[in-house]
Amino acid sequence: MPSQDRVAIVTGAARGLGAATAQELSRQGAKVVISDIDGLLAEGVAAEIRQSGRDALALRVDVSKITELDALVKTTVDHFGRLDILVNNAAICPRIPIDDMTEEKFDQIVDINLKSVFFLSRAAGNAMKAGKWGRIVNVSSVGGRTGGIYASTIYAATKAGVMSMTKAFARHFAPHGITVTCVAPGSVDTRLMSDLSPESLRGTIEGVPLKRLADPLEIARVIAFLASDGSSYMTGAIVDVNGGALMP
Ligand SMILES: NC(=O)c1ccc[n+]([C@@H]2O[C@H](COP(=O)([O-])OP(=O)(O)OC[C@H]3O[C@@H](n4cnc5c(N)ncnc54)[C@H](O)[C@@H]3O)[C@@H](O)[C@H]2O)c1
């Protein structure tokens, strides 16, 4: 199918890596659903895309609510007639030392970062079956491999979970022409990094052979490739995009 007919959902697309990914998929011809818990900011991204003459729809969605995930898929298919691409990008990374973690915070991080990936991948993949073609791209993190360095134990555990789920869903949907892959970014210049202390940030950059943070577009371009026809023989793969910070 020509890429201009493809329909994509990106979660957490109101800013940062999600916004860059939505813009990149749109530039490559897809109609994009900009979903985020911040509906106003999401509308801003969609408006920017529409100003360039391309199609986009903003939807306020809290990915930790399963009913909202089902509604996201239904509204997308009702509006655009199909669904071909899902990017599971939304996540939070509160910096909480192990001794200060509460059950409430633990559950919130797991619900947003991991539970959402399971339920949205299932709903979206089932909708993609109609077209016998689909791409699910999960956004994990280098933290999923290291265990999280700066007070991000549960975040890192959810990101390891995302890597594992990528493989299970890859097997599950393979018979339907749907591939499931994952990017594991290193440190990206977004709001998520902004609460690191200057020393931690310096230490992070010091550990990157390329000696800088990633621009969100440098990750978005890899996601867009995984969401394209070009990645047709990749499924269950974890792609590290980290400036050399970790070479597993
Ligand atoms: N920035 C980094 O250094 C880095 C590194 C590795 C991986 N990542 C991953 O990249 C992805 C994007 O992060 P980012 O750096 O752009 O962060 P960000 O904080 O700038 O953006 C996250 C987006 O998710 C949205 N969001 C938060 N909770 C939500 C919810 N319950 N429902 C729907 N949307 C919600 C936010 O409103 C925001 O728009 C995340 O999966 C993150 O784990 C980021």
Report on this model:
- Helix content is 45%, strand content 15%.
- With 248 residues, it is of the alpha/beta class.
- The chain has a single domain, classed as Rossmann fold (3-Layer(aba) Sandwich).
- A 7-stranded parallel β-sheet has the order 3-2-1-4-5-6-7, sandwiched between helices.
- The longest helix has 26 residues, at 103-128.
- The radius of gyration is 17 Å and the shape is globular.
- 45% of the residues are buried.
- The model has no long low-confidence stretch (mean pLDDT 96).
- Bound molecules: nicotinamide-adenine-dinucleotide.
Task: Note the total helix count.
Answer: 8
Q: Name the CATH architecture.
A: 3-Layer(aba) Sandwich
Cα-based radius of gyration, to the nearest Å: 17 Å
Name the poorly predicted regions: none
